[in-house]
Structure formats: C-alpha cells, structure tokens
Design a protein that fits this description.
It is built from 20 helices and 15 strands. By secondary structure, it is of the alpha/beta class. α16 (460-467) crosses α19 (567-573). The longest helix has 20 residues, at 2-21. It is globular, with a radius of gyration of 27 Å. The protein starts with a helix and ends in a 5-residue tail after the last helix. It binds beta-D-glucopyranose (2 copies). The site of one beta-D-glucopyranose has 5 residues, from loops.
Length: 640
Amino acid sequence: MKVRLFTLLLLLLLVQAPARAQTLPYQNPDLSVEERVADLLGRMSLAEKIGQMTLVEKGSIDPAAVTRYAIGGVLSGGGGYPSGNNTVEGWAEMVNAYEEAALSTPLAIPVIYGVDAVHGHAALAGAVVFPHNIGIGATRNPQLVTDIARITAQEMVATGIYWNYAPVLAVPQDIRWGRTYEGYSENTALVTELSTAALVGLQGEKLSDATSVLATPKHFVGDGGTAFGTSPVPEGLLDRGVTDVDEATLRAVHLAPYVSAIQNGARSIMVSFSSWGGKRMHGQSYLLQDVLRGELGFDGFIVSDWEALKDVAPNYADAVVLAINAGIDMNMVPYDYAGFITTLTAAVNNGEVTMERIDEAVSNILRVKFEMGLFEHPFANTDAQALVGSEAHREVARDAVRQSLVLLKNENNALPLDANASQTVFVAGPAADSLGMQSGGWTLEWQGFNQNNRTEGTTLIEALEAAFGENTEIKYSARGRYAAVNGSEAHADIGIVVVGEDPYAEYLGDSADLALSTRDIGLINNLRDKVDKLIVILLSGRPVIVDTQLNQADTFVAAWLPGSEGAGVTDVLFGGYDFVGKLPYTWPRNVGQLPFDFAHLPAEGCDAPLFPFGYGLSYASAEAAASWLELAATCAPAAS
Ligand code: BGC
Ligand code: BGC
C-alpha cells in the first residue's frame, strides 16, 4: 500500500513537473497578449532585453551565439540560403537550429526569422517565382495579389520562416531607381490597393495561424521619392538618397499606403535608408514617433534596414543612441551584433537611452511574437512542405504572368501566333533561355543570377517550343545567327527577339540612361532584315528607352520580370488569353523627360511620354494605339 502511494505520488510529480514549467504566465496562451508581455518583460535582464532587440544575418552568427546573447531575430539576407543544401528541408533544418538555440535560453523566447520573399520565396531553389511587383502592378488585380501572398506564406512556413520583408510600399517617382520593379506603381492609389492586398494575403485570417507570416511594409517612408544624384552610395544614383519634397507631398504620395497597411493589421514596419528634411529616416523621431506611432497609431515593432543605424551619425555610439531614441525597436545589425550590443548596453548604463525606451522596444517586439503564435509554433510547418513549388502554386504564377503582360504595339497581325501554321520562326536573345533574366534581382541571390537555369521553371524558349505545333520549324539562336539555306540568306516568317535588362537589385540597378544593351539593339536590327514579322518581348524591371525598336517591331510586349512561369507569356502570345495588363508606370521617350512632372504631363507632341500610365492594348483594341504609335514614329531618332 505504502509503495503504491509512493509510486502514485512520483507519477503525479512527473506529470506535473513539465506541465508546471510550461505555465509561467507568459507561456500561457489563454492569457491576453498584454499580460504575457508584462510578465515576460518583468523576468528579463538588460542583456536579454538588448538581445531581443538584435537582428543578425545568419552568415554572421551560429546557433550557439544566439543562445549566448539571447538574440531576438535572425535573417537570411539576399542570397542567404543554406549553402550546399538549398532545399525545403535544408532551410527548415537551418532555421529550426536557430529556433532551438533560442528556446534553450533560460526564458526560451523564440527567435523571429526573416527573409525577403518579395516575389515568392525566391531564395529557395524550386520555389515558385512570381512576377516582380511591377508586373503585378500591371495586373491591377488585388485578389490575385492576395492569392500570390497566401502561396508565398505557405512556401515560407514550410521552411520555418514566419517573417517576410514585404510588401514594398514604395511609390517610385523616377524609374531610373534600381528598385522600381519592387514597387507596384508610380501611382499611390494603386500601390495602396495592391500592397494592402499583399499584406492581407501574407498574414492570412489570423496572424497566429501556422500558415500565416508577419508582413513588413517597407521602407518607411519616401523611399520611392529620392532625387537623381542624391545617393550616398558611390555606385548609386538615387537609391538611399534624399526625398526632396514638402511634408504635404510626402504624406500624399508616400505615406498613404502605410495608413491602409496599419488599418489592415501591419505589425512590423521597416525604415527606409533614405533621408527627408535633412535627416536620415533612421534618426527621424518626428516621422517615427509623432506620425507613425502617434498619428497612425502603430503599436507593432519598427525594424531598421541593413546596417542602416550606422549612417545616422558619424560616430557609431551616437548613431545607436539617436536611432534607438528615434524609435527603432528591432535592429538589423547583420554583421557586428556584438558591437551593437556593447554600444547599446553602454548607452543604457550612462543614461543616454532610458530603461523605459528599452522596455518599450522590447514590449513592441514581444507583443508581435505573441500575436504571431511563435511561442506555440516556433518550428517549420512540415505540413506545408509538400506544397512548395507545386503545380497548383505554379498555375497561379502562370496566371499572374498572363495578366501582367502589357501589349504596346501589334501590327500586321503579328500576334496572335498560330500554333498550326506551316512556318519558320527565328527566336533570338539570351534572355529567351534564362530563368535568371526572367526573374530579376532577389532570385536565389541578392542580385539575381544570369548564368544557367539555377531554379525550376519554364524559360520562354521552352514555352515557345511546347506551344508551336509540328508544322512550325523553330530555330533558336541566342546571338541571332541562322544558317543560310541553299545559298540564299536565312529567312523566317516570324522573328521573336527577347531582350532585356540583366538582373540587378537596389543601388546597383540605378541607371542614368535606361538604355537597351548594344547586344539587344544589334539583335533587333539583325533580325528585322531576316523576318516578315518581328515580335519583340522585353524583360525589364521598368520602362527602358525603346522608341527606335518600337518602330522597327511589328509587335512589342512589355513582359516585366515574369518569374519562373514562362508559359504564361506564350498563353497570351498564341491568343488563348487576351492581353489585360496596363502600364503601372509612365513610359518615357527619352531620359531627358525624367523625372516626370506627373501633374503637368504633355499629352501630345514629342514632349509627351512614349506611353501614358494605364496604356495597354488588347487584341481587339490594338487599333486604338494609332495616335501614340504615330507620335512614336515621328519623334524617334532614325534607326541605326
Ligand atoms: C534592403 C531591404 C531588405 C534588407 C534585408 C536591405 O538592403 O533595403 O529591403 O529587406 O536588405 O535583406
Ligand atoms: C545582402 C542584402 C542586403 C544588401 C544591402 C547584401 O549583401 O545580401 O540582403 O539587402 O547587402 O546592401
């Protein structure tokens, strides 16, 4: 009897012990978020609080250091895939290891892991790659945007990542900016509508769901308004520069999308590298505190951009104090996290940063971590793993590609293509066989990739070959070289030239001339003489200068950066679907027209843009283009 009672007691203890460890108030999901935040904050040391405010790039930190410093956030920067194992499982293993490291600290606060899944989870090989936002802007379809964002979230949680540095809320005003393609449009209302739709899709029905990810509207605020020539980066022209507008303009053009994002549940916001009113955004307490927190009522957390802290003052210690006091909560210090921690600790100890400010920052971060359900489901969602890169996901991307294409010109019935005609088709341009050029920056690597088809998808040449019937003789030459037949010069009924910008991201994509490469100009010249009908497909992150080529071509299609599903392009070229895309940006005739004064754009004469915002033909409306195309022909310099 005695023995049995003892065993029973022992059993009871065993059952209770782990249960009790899990029911500290902050670990109890039945308590309110604010109760949990207050309880947890009360248990934290200064070191744990500062660790919580620290966000480190995974290449600079191993899991052991996450435990040692009680780090709050880890990210994959551009190209931050697990090297040697860029698979769903490889990512999940990598992210879970950081998570386990965080959970083995005394307070077991989960780490929040972030990535730039700005057009799908595109650093993951085999993930579906959606069109970049410029193409999405052309679709003007908010439901489609929400669907894309839902899929992106699924592919992210499969790898253990619940935090996306997206959507971009920039309203790019000058397309010479290298991040133009990251923005949906030059038009604030369109950006607001589509970025809100993306946020809603990423965050799902409830942020705490294991299929939801935290969205991060970025970059607050005015990133799209920087003036040409103001970039502080030696390689840059506009990126990270000065948004030289008055406050009314800043609010009307650039702030408006944030109002909607916050109303629709934005819980983390990333600050812009740019400056306004003589100050770097990371040191702007007026905009961060008074406007974002006060006026807009934002009570999620504010995250800094990549190493941006150090730019707010010449001396690092001053910079940290200034930025934290301006309102930065989570600090993206990708490399030197130890230096940041030492500096901020010293600033608290000498009173330059108050404990209240630290507590506020940490509360903001913890609040969102609780809302996300991270304490309840910190690890990769294995149920979602089978969906990554699935046919169902690719079908949505393919549909997005169809809707994103903008038909600029279509004469001589060059389109639609006829799959069954007996014909010869020449295809030219390295871009026709390049998932890298189709996808642009932020695809596998920060700057994207140019060589080899490093992920899964369909190139344009593959899509064309699959779509043409057996009576078509299709010859692809990247360099546009076709053998003479029986002594007479090579000739085809149809020529399709795919031209475009080589991949780029951020300041490395700033461009003074927006020129087509001499390679591409040469390809078009060369093919024009060899074919009856010439179709040009442009892959680019923005409008580029094409007036001469537009006149040479019978048909001209702006396909933007469509991503992995090239068959979406052929679906429309063969007439199975109509063109529905509309220009999300005004298209300049020459760079002398930039930056546009949108309020006073001429509609006629050679000072008018090549094409206005919203331009885009369908098969039925191709005639309506006559006046714009006539003007283009009159104003263009002679073909060389
Ligand atoms: C970019 C951000 C990005 C961050 C992390 C920065 O350089 O400006 O948009 O989220 O890097 O990769
Ligand atoms: C990182 C990017 C980051 C960029 C900023 C790169 O090395 O991979 O994530 O946006 O630096 O300059």
